[in-house]
Amino acid sequence: KLVMRSSTLLYGAHPSNPNFLGEHQPLRATKREPFFADKIEAEAEVGRFVERTEGAIATVLRVAPILGPTIASFVTRYLSQRLVLTMMGFDPLVQFVHELDALAALKLAVDRDVPGTFNIVGEGVLPLSKVIEIAERIALPVPHPIAEPLVALAWIGQLSPAPPALLPYLRFLCVADGARAKDAMGFRPAFTTREALDDFVRAQALRETKLLSETPRTEAR
Question: Contact, 137 vs 200, CB < 8 A?
Fold first, then answer.
């Protein structure tokens, strides 16, 4: 038995994507980015393992970007900046899953024999502009033709929270359908996309308040 955590981002962000991507959709994230290429190859290896191993049970969980009070990722780094890069003229819908729901889905996959691939997502979606507003950040719209070279330079200089391969997700839809996980696994998220975001925002506000309160004492020393 094998349980693997994967990502809904592997579907890729494309203008031709349907409103909700099912597990049957091809994985079209760019393989030029190792973050994607390695995960796509890992999923393929899981498939080969099942084919050559009699009685094998493999469960692949394609998890939406995770948010919550303790998670640290490129998404939390992106939303922790005061100025948040956006693509001028684009406002894609996005979805998240709360860290506790991601853990609950993993436990279900371990406790139950549920072979196959499942999207693990929170209920609901939000426009990126609304996400930035809720996070109390300031959008910095950049024309997309010049965004990639700018972000590539910033990534090399460790000034960008994510590589340029993730810029299409600031332009196009990449939202997954979680119906199969509900029907076959019995997974029902306790938190919506909005609630996962709210939980992150509250925790981030506390961290920033604590940092501000400690700064004068540090300088005084």
Answer: no
